[in-house]
Design goal:
single chain; 5-stranded antiparallel β-sheet; 4-stranded antiparallel β-sheet; 1% helix; globular
Length: 411
Amino acid sequence: MKSFNRRQFLGMSGILPLAASFGFSYPKKDNNCIFFTSQGKTAMINADGSGLKFFEFHEPRQATWQPSGFFPGGKKAVMMSMEPRRDGPGKPFEEYYTQTPTHIWSLDLQTEKLTELATRNRMSVFYIPSLLLPNNRLLVQVEKDRVSQVFSMNPDGSDAQPFTQRGEGVPYGLSLSPDARKVAFHLAGSDGYQVFTSDTDGKNRLKIRGNPGRLYFGPSWSPDSQWILYADCDETKDAGHDWADVCISRADASEHRSLTSGQAMWFAATYGNATTRGGGSNLPAWTRNGQVIFPQRLPGSKVPLEYQAERKDTDHFNRDFKPELSRGGVEIVQMNINSGHIQPLTPSGDGVWDFRASQSPDGKYVVFCRAETGGTPAIWIMDADGKNKRELTKGYKDLGADHPKWLPVVS
């Protein structure tokens, strides 16, 4: 039986408790809509600041909800709900978290109708929707006997076929190429985090990058399907996975480039203080014209929530708030992958931590989160060139907002 460690569950820190119901009016044709999380809720807001709405959803035994993706056309969402978590005091995360029953749903964003998916031939109580394929198949991460595997299945859960194999490691971070021909993902195993591509059925797998002691994490495809973008964390020198470099590789693995050096990107974004805290893995992102945006640390920066490497990690956080030792901050930058030119988009200063940036579907805006040292994050937006920066919301009762996600263009 495989025992999961903190590294192999790194990405699950992004699975946050949500509560959601999506009856809303679509934004105007010339606007963009952002979903985000706040205090266990899902909310939406338009890019111009209008239409702020927090949703409540009531379903028996379901404690938390989160959107996992959108069906083509942006009119339906794939949702995941969780029953009350089975881990907690005296019940280590690595053993008990995946004993929490989860459910996958299709949510019609106009009628609010929920349809539960993946109910037939359930193999485990713990299912995570990983990717919706264009042939109307779901890639689902299944945890059984503390071993993780991805299966391709029909929406109702029938005809489940292995996409990865048992014992290979924990597979997640799946990304579909824009031409819909390939899937990129990483496997977290004894040889570190390794990035692969394959056909959408898991066949013809190609290793893009992998080295022991390295976390190659969160691959995503360039708009032309020619490059794969990912983070590279040196865990031998950074037990808390605070920092990483930004890398790209050719989709055929013929060329690799480190776009940054010295672990320049904020990777394990953490915020808050001793009583209010949160976070989740931070990733670089492509722009619509093939440039890269990412959160770059100021020289010498040190996070205020210090990872305690010598202490047993029982809560998948394991950090102490030490603002007196904190210094520097993080700003969002844009890089030209050919010239290497970096353009700061959110030049700030000490004590300001910007993260979780992504560009709108029409390329007009960039949404990001901003948190001050010891504070909770707010959702911010700016023009694609960094102008007209403005705060949209601090979330529910001004208690913080995180994980912004753009609604795809509605057709």
